[in-house]
Amino acid sequence: MKKRVLILLMLAAIWTLGSWWYYTCKIKGFCSSNKTLTTAGAIGTASTAIPAVAEATQKEEKVTEINEEAKTESEEKESQTTDNTSSAEPKETIDSDGDGLTDDEEAVLKTNPNKTDSDGDGIPDNEEVGDEPGAAIDTDGDGIINALDEDDDNDTLPTLLEGAINTNPLEKDTDGDSIDDVTEVGDNTGAPLDTDNDKLINAIDPDDDNDGLTTLDEIALKTNPLKKDTDGDGIEDADEIGEKIVNPKDSDEDGIIDALDNNHSPKAEVIVAEEKSPEEPEVEKAAQDEKAAEDEVAVETVKTISTTSIQGSRLYFPFRGAEPKLSKSAANYFAKVAKWLEESTDNKITLTGHTDSIGGKAANKRLGLKRAEIIKKMLIKQGAPKNQIKLDSKGESKPIKSNKTEKGRKKNRRVELTPSAKSATTK
User: Residues annotated as region Disordered (predicted)?
Assistant: First the structure.
């Protein structure tokens, strides 16, 4: 009985091992072909099958480990490929304030990515930065780029203010007259200086006093660019400078140009015209005592058909003198006029000033009167009663020669002396 049980148990064990082998080797394929497990009915055969099963299990675990490593490596390569593809694609550009500069560029420039005008000067950041954000514009070279600089040209006038008054915020001297904008604007930036009141402020006006000479020329000549008449002699700078700015007039040749010299003594000559009739004078030259010096008044006398013993005369001012001197012959003539005026309060003279056409009409009117006043002072020094001398000015309105030539203009720059007296019957 016991033997039968033992045999059954052995058969069961062999069956079990055979089933495991079949599953492992035939179905799973873990067993090599040269290590086939045999079930030829002996217990010794079963004992050799157990190491084979262990070896097969180890191989299965190793294959699983290799497969997992291969899968992990494949996933890593796929991840790297995805990252490389992602980095090759362009990044999205963001411009929060829409000023043409990306937020990344503004971060580098330190401008405000949320404001189109970081420094609040009225000029957008992209205009002040320029075409190359990597080399942003810095006009005054102070290390602060224009987009962050409230005074781009460093002239102490804020860029915002310069935009309001129409000066150039990138130039210290907008009108190029060698005077900085801040000086020409003045202390009251709310009301910039406009010397000549022509609605063009000095900072952008090439001729601040409107005298016909540019401010730049006046600085070179050392005349006052803010005054039409620098030396205050009643004659505007432009008239005293003459037509050649590079060679301004110096009548007395003392090294001081007329525009700066209020005591220059130019040459002048007096020509007395004989009157053929009150309407048509006839000129007859008389002998002249001496040739007048260049800085003296020369006189020429003639007989006139009139009730007075004094001839009319013309005094020419070729160089617009402020106080011309008298030659001996001129002094004698003025002495006769003064004596004649002293003889009777009815004896009177009229001094009428004339000019050429250079300059404005109003200025020439004043200039003609100024010349008449000069002659009046000469006569008063000779003893003439001032109440018997009348002054008048025709300015440029009564030329006697063409103003197109210097010779003609010289003739037109004159003072005419006209005597008058009451007749005996009138008395």
Answer: 58-211, 225-256, 273-295, 385-427
